[in-house]
Here is the input.
Amino acid sequence: MSAKSKSPASVKRRISFSLSAPDARNIKLAGDFTGWENAAREMKRQRNGAWKATVAVSPGQHEYRFIVDGQWVDDPKCDTRKPNPFGGENCTRVVE
Here is the structure.
């Protein structure tokens, strides 16, 4: 028997997200890859006041935002955005 190989499109990639928010108490990463709020990923505070999370996602375009102390926040380092159904915009990142 031969082992099944995964196609390149099905292999998940680990990508990191970060946000500088030294005064924040809690930050979560929410996106299409977390079911948005349903399984938002807790981010970890770094010594420099930035917050970081690394997630595994499938290749393609993904939408995301941060939840900072309960408030939705855009990624200031993201220039590519897409309108969302709530009148705001989601940040987007392409994973190859």
In short: The beta strands are 13-20, 27-31, 41-42, 44-45, 50-57, 60-68, 71-73, 81-83, 89-95.
